[in-house]
Amino acid sequence: MPISTSGNNFDIILVSAEWWDDHPLSPVGVIARVLDAKGFSVGIIEKPETPEDFQKLGAPGLFFGVTAGSIDSMMNNYTPMKHRRENDPHARKQNIMPDRATIVYCNALRRHFKGCTIVIGGIEASLRRFTHYDYWDNDVRRSILLDSRADVLVYGNGEMQIIELARRARDGKELAGVPGTCIVSKDVPAGFEMLPGHALAAADKSKFCEMQNMFSISKNLAQEYDRNHVLQYSYPKYTAKFLDWVYSLDYSRFMHPDSLLRMAQFSVQTHRGCIGTCSFCSLGLHQGNRIISRSQESILAEIGKIVKHSEFRGVIDDLGGPSANMYGMDCGICGGDCLSCEKLDRSHKPIIELMRKARKVRGVRKVFVRSGVRYDLAIESPVYIEELSKFHISGCLKVAPEHFSPRVLGLMGKPGERLEEFVQLFGKLNTGTGQSLRYYLMIGHPGEDRASLDELVKKAEGLGNIENFQLFTPTPMTVSTCMYWTGLDPRTMEPVKVVYDYRTKKRMKEKMLDILDDSETTQHKDY
Ligand code: SF4
Questions:
Q1: Exposure check for the chain: N or C terminus, fewer CB within 10 A?
Q2: Is 291 in the pocket of ligand 1 (CB under 6 A)?
Q3: CB 174: neighbour CB atoms within 10 A?
């Protein structure tokens, strides 16, 4: 039975706060395809609102899969200044969904399908799997697994986990113990590391920091709640071979008219994971801080399929991943900090070779690289910068230095010392080409004070090519959010200055708006 939004007698019904796109970049699209490929019938309920919406496909034979999708519903619905996006003329319009969509959908399913099994997944569930600070409540919340009353939580990318859960459910086996999932349990099996309990972490900021430092996807972790524990089973080993299979599936790439992925219809993901250590990003606790690159053959085969698509016009929208130029930087020998490790292959040979072959695929006129480029890595390969500038960007390369104050950059976990060197090299390699650099910046990050903000503003005014800036938003489970809530850097337990005051943030924002206006940017302003 094909994947469908109508009918009944499905094994698994996926309930999503985002439109279903049959596309490898759509979380619900990928989960539906891998289950279908493993012989399970899949029904999809998109953006349900009424009781009828939740009941239209009947009860699943095995379980409901619930997701808010590729973004946390609170991030989706509110600007960094906590304005509801639909009421904010400046805000980037998103597909509005219920606040805390995962919880709302689970409670609705519990009302209409007593005793059904519910599996939750996606960014919202994944990064709220333990005790976390919630910016919108301005308070600490407990694991979403408890608030949603779901049976299993899948964290990170969930293809391997959902297949295993479906098999176990089909075979009547218990769902506890699947790597890459969390459950609620009265007991803690052997081999689990105990995080500080919820009550303690919520009451004591040094304990909150201790919890933050213990978060990892490669460990079995347990956290105590009143009469229960949330157990995390360590993440399964995703391989290039498995990713090649996931991306080889028969996605139609037809998009919902209101899909946010429309601009990425012909984008190709080359790898997963990121070896960056940015404090404000939680990709490492979602996808992992190791690179898993697809094979060149698999990527070129996908492009070969795209060329035959009826809506394809010769342009690959993006060839990339979390950081485009980390493709091929797979290592995984140890758990160390790859960016400062001499063993890391910084040659960029794999990505250069891939780019050259991708643009030679028959029917391809242009291959864009729109994913972020890590300049502190790219600087190691002038050939990569040259190829990128000559064939894969149009008019400008966007990089994200985020800030210019060494102290703030240190707290952000971002490099800064080689930016000038990169600018010089890019300039030299692009003499007479008209290609330029444009910058993404972040304001309001913990540790930023008046002086460092003035430093950023002065530098940004001098550069005059700011692409965009964002006001720091504390999202669940990041190191920066821990700093924001506790006023401490969890890595050193040193105090960190944090701006909480709304008026100050507003002033900061207005300063940057003026600079943006002078930078002639066309982007929406997200504040
Ligand atoms: S050896 Fe170096 S590059 Fe490899 S995983 Fe360890 S830290 Fe990363």
A1: N
A2: no
A3: 9
Regarding the beta carbon of 342 and ligand 1, being less than 6 Å apart is answered: no
Query: Does pTM surpass 0.85?
Result: yes
Mean pLDDT, the chain, whole residue set: 93
Residue 93: predicted pLDDT? 52
For residue 117 the two structure tokens come to: 């099994």
Q: Each residue of 423-469: pLDDT tens digit?
A: 999 999 999 988 999 999 999 999 999 899 989 988 888 888 888 88
What are the structural domains of the chain?
12-232 (3.40.50.2300), 263-394 (3.30.750.210), 395-527 (3.30.750.200)
DSSP states along 256-297: -TT-TTGGGTTEEE-EE------TT--GGGTT-SS-EEPPHH
Cα gap 479→276, rounded to integer Å: 13
Give CA–CA dist 357/78, Å, rounded: 42
Q: What is the pLDDT of residues 64-118, one digit of tens each?
A: 999 999 999 999 999 999 988 876 665 555 578 999 999 999 999 999 999 999 9
Paired sense of beta strands 12-16 and 42-46, if any: parallel
The span from the CA of 396 to the CA of 423, in Å, is 12
Pairing of strands 118-121, 152-154: parallel
333 ligand 1 Cβ < 6 A: yes
Phi–psi pair at 316, nearest 5 degrees: -80, 120
Pocket probe for ligand 1: among 218, 237, 290, 338, the residue whose CB has the most ligand atoms within 8 Å is: 338
